Fold:
Amino acid sequence: MVGAPEPEFSFIIHPSELTDKEVKYELSAESAECATLAERFGLLAIERFESVLTIKFLKREKAIRLRGRLEATVVQSCVVSMASVENTVNEEFEILFREENQIDKDEVDEIVEFEPYSNDEIDIEEIVFEELALALDPYPRSPQIADELLGPYLPEPEDPATKPFAALAALKRTK
Structure:
């Protein structure tokens, strides 16, 4: 069985060292790191990548809360013309972490949203990179591509009269 690939970069924190006071981290990627990440995500380039994170131990929940904001400028290929498309990513996120051996099976069944960690380690830089991957535009399109060219492939605009509750809305208006 093949394990998960090793991340290119990492910034490990140790939850056992955290207190209930918020700790702030600012992470940015240098040009070599940006080039490696662009290759990893199939991008033409990452021109800028910055993140600000705060981490706090939550006593009541017995969890670690990671709040973050990432900002990046990425260059993707247009899905139609393959031309370069520059996009700005500006994303906020929040993740709760709990130690694997303290996860209650009943909580998992209740779909409590948290991420497990083990060995007293959380790689916050890898978490931020994953958030970037989730925030990328999956279908970047160059502004030079005319809608006329794509017309047959674009979804039809919704006609208000064909909506499921249009008849009910009409009744409500007549009262």
Summary: DSSP finds five helices and seven strands in the chain.
